[in-house]
Amino acid sequence: MGRLRAKSDYEDLRNARIAENQARMLSLGLEKSASDLRAITTPIKTVRKYKKSVYSYTSLRRSDRLKGKSPDQIKSLEEKVRSVEPARKRLFSLARSEERRPANAPLLSVHPSKLQLSPDVLSRRCDSKSRGSVYDPVLGICCHFCRQKKLCGEEDCKRCGDRDVDQPCIGKTDCSVCHSTNGVLCRACLKVRYGEEMDEVRENKEWMCPHCIEEKGINPYWICNSSFCLRKRKIAPTGIAIYEAREKGYESVAHLVMDQLKRAAGHG
Ligand SMILES: [Zn+2]
Ligand SMILES: [Zn+2]
Ligand SMILES: [Zn+2]
Ligand SMILES: [Zn+2]
What we know:
Strand order of the largest sheet: 1-2
Structural class: mainly alpha
Helix content: 40-55%
Radius of gyration: 28 Å
Number of helices: 12
Bound molecules: zinc ion
Number of domains: 2
Shape: elongated
Number of strands: 2
Largest sheet: 2 strands, antiparallel
């Protein structure tokens, strides 16, 4: 008896709360999101802890939570959920893909018309394999070193050649550890600044950017020599140091800097 009483108290309370919430929502016009909707259909006994799984979207369950509502009410609630669903899904897939996607294939949402290039421009794309020759603010991936948002000059890059936003640019590196913009280098910078070949890096599924190599302590004094990163360490940027490096017989600027740092630390 006591339990029954408690149960119906609970139901009363819950119904009151649902009604109150609904009135509030309706007075606001429309529910802003499906989560609001879920809130009003969530039993109050549920202790709703903060959940980090904000990215997962579960469709509204038709359950006895909706008992007591007329079919019309249910229908209109469902319609509201449906109306916000695409937007929510887009938002969540955006957040999800941004987590997963490497920096040489960032998520883009662009109008197809923005993706078209004249055949003439496209034909120039592979003129320079080292840095690329066509600047493209939409599809071009910015090199961490030269900061040029260019299409790559690789013949078979689906992103730059076929204008496919979902493909990575194969003419820019992707760090297997951080997948961040720190690890995005064009063919020319990769070679000149770090002495590495694009084709080898692309094959190497475990390739790491200088930032990650340093962070993991893999190769002492092997550091990123982009002017921005050097300035952060209060080291003078090595703009055209490649000539100096080559003259002195170093493979790349990073090799030169590594040696200088070693000497400075007294290991030379
Ligand atoms: Zn570059
Ligand atoms: Zn490319
Ligand atoms: Zn990295
Ligand atoms: Zn850097």
